[in-house]
Give the backbone structure.
Amino acid sequence: MNQVVVITGLAQGMGREVALRLAAGGDVVAGFDMDADGIAELQKELDRKGSTHLVEPLDISDRPGIAAFRDRVLERFGHVDTVLSNVGIGFFGPFEDVDLEKALKCLEINVIGTAAIFQAFIPSMRQRRSGKLIAMSSLVGQVPFPFESIYTASKFAVEGLVESIRYEIEPFGIKTAIIQPAQVSTRFAAKIHHLPPEGSPYRERAKRFIDRDNELIQKATTPEQAAQRILRVVRSPNPPLRSQVDAMSTFFLFLNWLLPKRIRDAILLSHMNIKA
C-alpha cells in the first residue's frame, strides 16, 4: 500500500535518493530543505515523474514554519504514514578548540530539528493509531569518534530521544526506527574537514584522521545504495529499532557490542590511523 512520507533534508544526498525512489514507487513525498536551489531541482524531477508531492524550502530551525508545513501536508493529504528525519550537519575539530556557539547550531539542527519534526506529526499519528518515525543517526551515535565530539554528542542525543519517546508512543500504534550510516560517498564530510591551525597540538593527528576519512569515503556506500536500504525501513510495517546502510557501521557496532572497551579503542585508533 502506498504511503505519505515526510522527509527533512531531501534536496541532496540520501534524502533526495529516497524521495525519488518513493515517488517512483507511487508513494506521496512531502518534505523540505533549506537548499532552495536543490528543492527546485528535485521538484522538477518529481514533476517529470508525474508524482504527487509537496516539497518546499524551509529551515529546520523555523518552528512556526514547521507547524505551517505540517498543516499544509495534513490538509492536502489527510494523514502522514512515515516521517524520516534526515536533516543534519557535521562538526569536526579538536574539542579544546570548539566554538561552542557553532556547536549549539549543530545540536539545534541535529537534535532539536529531529524533535521538532517528530513532535509536529505525532498528534495526527496518535489519533489514527498508526505511523512511523525514523531518525537518521550515525555510527557515532553509539561508537564515539575523536575530533567529532559535538557531532557524536548530537547523534547520541538523537538515539536517546528515539529510545525514550518509543515507550510513550508505541501504545498508540506509532513505530520508531534509527538508521546508523558510517560513511556514505557524499560531500558531507568534506564540508566540515578543516585542519587545526599550525602549532596546534592536535594538527598532525587530525590530518591523519582527515586523510584516512577521505580514503574511506572513496570506497564508501553511495547515496543510491544507502537509499535502497533506507527504503526497506520506510516500507517495513514493523522495522527493527536500529538498521545500518553500510558494512562499516555493522562491523563496528558488532565489535562495540562484543569486545572489551580497551580492544575496541585500539581497533578504532588503528582503523583511523590516529594512534598517538
